[in-house]
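re: ur question from the group chat, yeah i did fold both. here u go
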Amino acid sequence: MDHFLYRKGILHAEDIPLPDIAAQVGTPFYVYSAATLRRHFRLFEEALSPLDHLICFSVKSNSNLAVLKLLGDLGAGMDVVSGGEYARARAAGIPGERIVFSGVGKTREEMRAALEGGIRQFNVESEAEMHQLSEVASAMGKTADIAFRINPDVDAETHEKISTGKAENKFGVPISRAREAYAAAARLPGLNPLGIDLHIGSQLTSLAPFRKAFTRIASLTETLRADGHAITRLDLGGGLGIPYETGNDGPPLPIEYGQMVKEVLGHLGCEIEIEPGRLIAGNAGLMVAGVIYVKQGEDRKFLILDAAMNDLVRPALYEAHHDIVPVEEPAPGAETTPYDIVGPVCETGDTFAKSRPLAPLQAGDLVAFRSAGAYGAVMASEYNSRPLIPEVLVDGARFAVIRRRPTYEEMLSRDMIPAWL
C-alpha cells in the first residue's frame, strides 16, 4: 500500500496534487511519501515483535538525509556500505550504535572513521578484511564488534545482477570456511566476533531461498557456539521484494517473513538485525516526468519525456519494470495507445518501456513512474551533463524540496582547467 492516489481525477502524493509540485520545482522530480515510509517501517517492527531486533535501513536504496532522519526518528538503524553513507547516517542524527557497516571493499580510512565516530558492528566480508580491521582497531586502541558475512551458496532466484548469496558471487566468506574464519578472528587483537551476517540478494519474491539460507545459518550458529564462540547477533540482510507491476501477485508480506524468521531462528535466542531498503522506500516514491514530444515512428509511437536513463537507470540496467501512469486520470474505459516510452539521452538504451499501453498523451502532460523510491535517485548521474533532479518529501498537506536541482554553473564549477591549457 502507498499514499499515491487519484483524487478528482488528479494523482496526489498524500494530500498534495502532483501538478502543484511540478509547478514549483519543475519536471522531472522524485517525490516521497512520509506516511508510506512510516507505515512500511512499522510493518517490519510488528513482523519481528517480540524478538529482540533492530531494523537497519539499507542506505544504498535511498540516501537522502531527510529520509534517513525520518526513519531514524522512528528508531531505525542504518546499514551502510561506504564511508560516504556512514557520513550521511551520522549527519542525519543516527547514533553510531545503530549503524552497521557492510560492503566488500572497506578501506582503512573508512574503518578508522567508523571506529572514531561510533559503530555497532562491521560485517566482515573476507579474511583479508579481518586482518586489516584488526590492525586498524588495535592501532587505535579499540575493539571492533564484527559479524562475518557468510556466503551460504543459496540461489536467491532473482535477477543475476542482484543475486549475492551464490558461491560464484563476490560477497562474503564461503560457509565452508566459516569455522576457520571465526577461530582466526578470536585470536586477533582488536576484534570481537559476536555475530553472523548474510545477504543473499535483492527483490526476492519467495520465502523459500530465505528459509534455506537461514536454516544453514542456524546450524552454523550452533556449530560456532560449540566451538566456543559467543554468537549473540544474526544479521539477516534484506532482499524482500516489492510489487513493481500492478495486477501481479505480490511478494510475501513482512508479517509472513517475520513468522518464518521466528520459526527458523527464534530458538537461538539471538538478537535479529535486518537490512530492508527496497520494501521500505520503493513504493514510497514516484518519479514524475513531463512529455516533451509525441513522435510517430515508422511502426510505433514514441513518448519522449524530460526524464532519462540518467535519472532512473533501473530499466536500462536491469530491464526493470515500473508502472507508468498519467497524472491526469483517464476516463473509465478510455482507449489506449501503445507507446515506446523514452528519454532524451543519446542512447538507444534510454528506453523506459516498449509498447506500453496508455491513454493518449500529448506534449505538456505529466506521467508518474511508480515504485521509484528505492534505487532511483541514488543511482542517478549527470550523463549528457543533465542536472540531478530534485527530490521532494510530502507529509500530509505539506511538502519540501529535500534536494534541489543544481544549476549548470554549479555543475561546471566542479571542473578545473589546468593553468597550462
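okk and heres the other one u asked abt
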Amino acid sequence: MKTPRTIEIIGGGVAGLSLGLALRRHDVPVTLYEAGDYPRHRVCGEFISGLDESTEEQLGLRKFLTDAKPHRAVTYHLRDRPLRPFALPATALGISRHTFDARLAGAFVAAGGDLRTGTRIPEDDRPPGRVMAVGRNRSGPFWIGLKIHIHGLVLDNDFEVHLGDRAYLGLSRVENGAVNLCGIFGRRPISARGANLIPAYLEACGLHQLAERVRSAATDPSTFCVTAASLGDRHVAEPDRVRIGDACATIPPFTGNGLAMAFQGAALAVEPLRAYAWHESEWDESAQVIAVTQRRRFRRRLLLASVLHPFFLVAWRQRLLAELVGSGLVPFRTLYSALH
C-alpha cells in the first residue's frame, strides 16, 4: 500500500480546522499552520445560520455545538426604532469563537493532526497538497469591524439587527451567557480607544438607545476585537489553488451565513483531498473538482447578497427596507433560502 500524501492547511479558523479534523478521520496526514494561538477572540457574529445536516454530519460538528444557544427569531431596528420581528426558517446557533475554535483545535490534535501555531507560511508558495484557509488580500474600501461580549444586556429577541448611518450590527447570545455584539461601521474620526470604541461608534451612527444599553451593561474588555472589515465578495476566488473559507469567498455579514459557508466549503473539499492523499487522483484533478463544486454551491447566494447589501448600509435604502419589513412585504423565507 502506498504511503498517503500529506495535506497542508494554511489557516486555523473554523474552515481549516474542520477540514483537517475530517481528513484525519480518513487517516490522511495533515499539517495545519496557524499564525495565532488558541483560545482567541475574533471579530465574528458568532451566529451560525444555514448549517445543513449533511455538512454537520460529514465534518462531525454536532458534539462541538451541544451548548450553543438556539436562535429562532430576529428583530430588525432602524436607528432606535424596532421593526417587525421574523421567525427564522431554521434554528440558528450562537457560540463564541473563543470556545469553538479551541474545541476544534484540541480535537484535531487528539486525532493525530500536526498543529503548528505561531507559524506563518508564505502565501506565494503553491506546492501540491497545500490548502489556503486564510482570508484573501482585497483592495478597499475597508470598513471597521468591531466585536465585544456583554453581560447583563437584555435582548428583545433571540437575535437583534440594528441599522445605523453607514453601519449595521448584530446582537445574539452565545454559550457562556454573554451577548455578542459585532458590526461593521464606516470609518469616522473618533478619538475613543479600545472597548470604548463600541458606544462611541454607536452614537456616531445614530444608535443612541443601543449605545446607552451597552454603557449600562457589563462589557468584557478582554473580548474586544477590531479589524478592517470586508463587505463580502461577489464571486468565489479564482481556482489558481485550493481555497476554503474566507480564502474562497466571504458573504456579506448581514446574511449570518458566513460560518456555515466556511463549513460547507470545507466539507466540499474532504473527498477530493482524501482521493489525492491516497493516490486515487492527482492534485490538479482534485483542485478542479473543489473549485467547480464551490462555484456551483456558492455563486447564487454571493450574487444575491451583494445586490441586497447596500440596503443595510445606505440611508435611503435602509428606510426603504424598513418600510418593506414593517409592511410584511419582504419575502423573508424566500430570501433566507436563496442566501443560504
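fwiw on the second one: The domain at 7-139+232-339 is CATH 3.50.50.60 (FAD/NAD(P)-binding domain). Residues 283-308 form the longest helix (26 residues). idk if thats what u expected
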